[in-house]
Design brief:
Length: 372
């Protein structure tokens, strides 16, 4: 008897500033999911939050298409999730009438940044009783919030670079107090980042008070909280984690670049770095990185996958954990797939394993009682 294919919904786009990154990741995933195993249903979310059923990443509306006469154009199909603990379905609205597309077995969210990587859409999947790839609500939220993440790292004695966190309103009300605190506790140079953002968006280096004010002004455009970290001369290394309660860790790789700091353009538009696997670091240091990566994955209650990024101080060799990324870039040239490819897990098989982990986690949660 011919085995029935798993129906996989791949969601991409979204309302985040990382919308375009998501489209690139999704295109690669869609091209590498084994169509002998899966029936793939693409689901795009526009920058405005409209769900589009059956659209591919290259056909997603662009800002240019939303000008002039096309500004009020409605999509041909708008999709919404519906379901309960046993039935997972999509409804398409055509001419105002719902048309069922059949049940989904699992969702593969490829949404980078806020509204996709931060626990919000994971909460929707949980409410719909829908299995999904990646971290749960809590793990996703913690993995997005650089402040809470670092607080948990510190609680289990994982070393982090000294930092300060402020809310937008604090900056508006007492800028002088914040500037003085940064100068006294961190000094120059320092790095300013939005707390809940990835892909180096809104990140800048401050060399003095003037550039610090400019950096903070930029960061608060992207989030209500900012984090300011001491600048150190470091090497940047990463490892990939895959699994649920018993995660596996990849080889360690190193991001090598001649520029002082990579911004969005240097990561995605005109890549200005090389990523080498394995990293040229001593074995004892590698083993420590792998230990710390597993600790970080477990303390943040992560599941499915994550990339863990570290800094190695060039002056004294000390290791600092930087952050986890619960939905890293997913093109074939992205760091996470490269790490697993070098660890003898090719890209298509990596996608298979992530779907298996999603179903495994969902099945485990299904055994829980929902009534007395």
């Amino acid at each position: 008897m011919k085995q029935q294919k798993l129906r996989v919904g791949v969601i991409f786009g979204g309302r985040s500033c990382e919308h375009d990154v998501s489209l690139h990741s999704a295109a690669s995933i869609l091209a590498n999911l084994d169509t002998n195993k899966y029936e793939v249903i693409p689901l795009g979310i526009t920058r405005e939050g409209t769900w589009l059923l059956g659209v591919t990443p290259d056909k997603m509306p662009t800002p240019a298409e939303k000008t002039g006469e096309q500004e009020n154009r409605q999509p041909d199909k708008a999709a919404v999730l519906a379901g309960d603990a046993k039935v997972y379905d999509l409804l398409a609205l055509e001419d105002g009438k719902p048309v069922g597309t059949g049940p989904l077995d699992v969702i593969f969210p490829v949404l980078h940044g806020p509204y996709g990587e931060d626990g919000t859409i994971q909460g929707l999947f949980e409410m719909a009783g829908l299995p999904y790839v990646g971290c749960g609500v809590l793990g996703s939220a913690l993995g997005m919030d650089k402040e809470k993440m670092k607080m948990l790292f510190q609680a289990i004695h994982l070393p982090v670079i000294p930092y300060l966190v402020y809310k937008h309103r604090q900056w508006e009300q007492a800028p002088e107090t914040i500037l003085l605190a940064v100068e006294q506790e961190l000094g120059y140079p320092c790095i300013v980042k939005p707390v809940n953002m990835g892909s180096s968006i809104g990140v800048s280096k401050a060399e003095d008070r003037k550039t610090l004010e400019q950096a903070i002004a930029q960061a608060v455009e992207y989030d209500t909280k900012i984090i300011i970290e001491r600048w150190l001369n470091v090497r940047e290394v990463s490892c990939a984690v895959l699994g649920n309660e018993e995660p596996e860790i990849s080889l360690v790789g190193e991001l090598v670049t001649e520029v002082e700091m990579l911004h969005y353009e240097g990561k995605y538009l005109q890549p200005a770095f090389n990523f080498t696997v394995p990293a040229a670091i001593p074995r004892p240091q590698t083993e420590e990185l792998l230990r710390m990566a597993k600790q970080a994955f477990l303390v943040l209650d992560l599941s499915g996958l994550a990339r863990v990024d570290f800094f190695l101080d060039r002056n004294d060799g000390r290791i600092y954990i930087n952050e986890v990324n619960t939905l890293p870039g997913f093109t074939q040239d992205s760091v996470y797939p490269k790490l697993w490819s070098a660890s003898n897990l090719p890209y298509p098989q990596l996608l298979d394993r992530m779907i298996e982990l999603a179903l495994e986690r969902h099945q485990d949660r299904q055994r829980l009682r929902t009534s007395q």
